């Protein structure tokens, strides 16, 4: 469905977007510099066409990380379909993809990472694929924040365990403050949706849209129905 040349162009465009001096996420820059930012080109964020493939990629990513854990690894799914969508439509689409991917993980009897919660209201919430916690950074052309504004929809999956490594190494706060300062310089204001890891549910941050306090995450995971909302020790 997507020609190789078009795939290559999208990958190159995304790498250039991350390399740009103004792009605030130093973690993504480090991943790209070390060859640990993987890009996968798919068709449409509003379609389940590539969901099986995306889930397989996430499983492989989780298993590889478990064998050789390291900082600053990300896998980005770039959606080639140029049909324009609003922020609300993008948010709806990524949660459809996330629910589909989570359902596939459960169907394959993959465990939910016990270090995180499957309750999207919990401050310890994260997604889980292949037994590893993940969070998502969504990007698309109509994003209100410049750092999230790429020419095509993108879902970047980052490993939850990397945050714990950064905390253990005493680097988390420094990196967070650096990103916040760079983002404020780019956008002219601090991103009101950003919260410290573990202080509030990360679910509201995934799409990049400024959501109201009444917003409720449209996600559920059957593996979490009988679990506590606090992560296991």
Report on this structure:
It is a single chain. The N and C termini lie far apart (45 Å). A hairpin with a 2-residue loop joins strand 3 and strand 4. This protein has helices spanning 4-19, 26-33, 51-67, 87-107, 160-168, 172-187; strands spanning 37-42, 74-79, 127-129, 132-139, 154-159. The longest helix has 21 residues, at 87-107. It is an alpha+beta fold and 233 residues long. Strands 1-2-5-4-3 form a five-stranded mixed β-sheet, sandwiched between helices. It has one domain (4-204). It comes from Novosphingobium chloroacetimidivorans. This is FPC/CPF motif-containing protein YcgG.
> How many E-type strands?
5
Mean pLDDT: 91
Give the helix level as a range of percent.
25-40%
* Secondary-structure element pattern, one letter each: HHEHEHEEEHH
Number of helices: 6
The Cα radius of gyration reads: 17 Å
Helix/strand class: alpha+beta
């Amino acid at each position: 469905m997507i020609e190789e040349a078009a795939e290559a162009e999208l990958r190159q465009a995304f790498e250039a977007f991350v390399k740009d001096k103004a792009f605030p996420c130093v973690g993504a820059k480090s991943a790209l510099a070390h060859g640990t930012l993987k890009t996968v080109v798919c068709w449409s964020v509003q379609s389940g066409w590539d969901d099986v493939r995306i889930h397989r990629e996430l499983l492989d990513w989780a298993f590889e990380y478990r064998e050789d854990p390291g900082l600053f690894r990300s896998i980005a799914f770039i959606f080639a379909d140029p049909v324009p969508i609003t922020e609300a439509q993008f948010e709806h689409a990524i949660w459809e993809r996330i629910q589909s991917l989570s359902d596939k993980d459960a169907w394959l009897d993959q465990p939910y990472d016990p270090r995180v919660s499957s309750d999207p209201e919990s401050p310890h919430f994260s997604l889980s694929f292949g037994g590893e916690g993940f969070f998502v950074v969504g990007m698309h052309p109509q994003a209100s924040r410049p750092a999230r504004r790429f020419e095509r929809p993108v879902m970047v999956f980052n490993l939850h365990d990397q945050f714990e490594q950064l905390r253990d190494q005493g680097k988390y706060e420094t990196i967070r403050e650096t990103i916040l300062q760079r983002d404020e310089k780019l956008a002219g204001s601090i991103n009101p949706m950003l919260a410290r890891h573990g202080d509030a549910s990360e679910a509201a941050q995934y799409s990049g849209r400024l959501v109201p306090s009444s917003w409720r995450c449209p996600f559920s995971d059957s593996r979490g129905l009988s679990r506590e909302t606090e992560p296991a020790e």
